[in-house]
Amino acid sequence: MVPQSFDDRRFQMVESQIIRRGIKDPLVIKAMRKVPRHLFVPEDLRELAYEDRPLPIGEGQTISQPYIVAFMTEAAELGPSSKVLEVGTGCGYQTAVLAEICKEVYTIEIVESLAERARSLLKKLGYQNIYSKVGDGALGWPEQAPFDAILVAAAPKQVPPALLDQLALNGHLVIPVGEDVQYLKRLTRLEKDQFKEENLLPVAFVPMTGVSATLT
C-alpha cells in the first residue's frame, strides 16, 4: 500500500475533524485545506501532524489541535477585509490560517526563539500580509489598533483589559480564560464600554505569561 501523502492526510483531516464536527465557514475550511500543518511541527513529529491532537513545538509550548484552530477562527467571523491580532504566534500555524482569510494579520509572541522560527517559515511560505513582533501579548499592539478580531492562544487568569480596549466596534475577542478550569470565551464589542460575553467550550491551553500572569 502506498503511504498517504501529507496533502491527502490534510484533506482527510479537514473532512473528518473539521467539517464533520460542525465547522461551516467556507473561508475557514479552504484555509485549513491549504496550510501545510506538517511544516509547522518539529520534523520528528510530522507523521502526527494531521491527527486530532495538540503537539509540542518546544519552549514548553504547543500547536493547538486542528479543530480548535478552525473553531476559534470561525468564531472570530473573519473576512477578506479583516484586520486581526493574534496573541501567541507559537509555531505560526494559526497565523498562516488567519493570513489565508484576512487582509492583515498582526501577531505577537513572547518567546523570541519561537517568534523568529515562525517568522522565517511564514516568509518562506510567501505570506506578505503578516506583521510580527516579540512582546507581551497581554498588552496587545496599540499602535495598530483597532482590530476587527483578536485571537489568543494562551490562557490568562482573566481577560487582559488592553485587548478589550483594542477591539473594534462589533469586533470579536476569542480567548481561553482560567487556571484549573478554562473556557474559550468570545467577547463582542457592542459599544465603547459594553461587551457581550459568551462561553463557547471548555479547553486546555498553556497559561499566558507576561503582564497577564499577575492579573487576578
* CATH-defined architecture: 3-Layer(aba) Sandwich
Total helical segments? 6
Number of domains: 1
Number of strands: 9
User: The CATH topology is what?
Assistant: Rossmann fold
Q: Mean pLDDT score, rounded? A: 93
The ordered H/E elements are: HHEEHEHEHEEHEEE
The general outline is globular
Summing up helix and strand content along with how strands pair, one would put the structural category as: alpha/beta
Task: List low-pLDDT spans.
Answer: none
What Rg, in angstroms, do the CA atoms define?
16 Å
The CATH H-level homologous superfamily: Vaccinia Virus protein VP39
Strand content: 25-35%
Strand order of the largest sheet: 5-4-3-6-7-8-9
What is the makeup of the main sheet? Answer: 7 strands, mixed
CATH class: Alpha Beta
- Percent of residues in helices: 25-40%
* End-to-end separation: 55 Å
Descriptive terms for the model:
6 helices, Rossmann fold, two-stranded antiparallel ribbon, 216 residues, single chain, 9 strands, 7-stranded mixed β-sheet, alpha/beta
Helix and strand topology:
Elements: H1 6-19, H2 26-34, E1 55-58, E2 61-63, H3 66-75, E3 83-87, H4 93-101, E4 104-109, H5 112-124, E5 130-134, E6 147-152, H6 161-165, E7 167-178, E8 182-191, E9 194-203
Parallel strand pairs: 3-4, 3-6, 4-5, 6-7
Antiparallel strand pairs: 1-2, 7-8, 8-9
Helix pairs in contact: 1-2, 1-3, 2-4
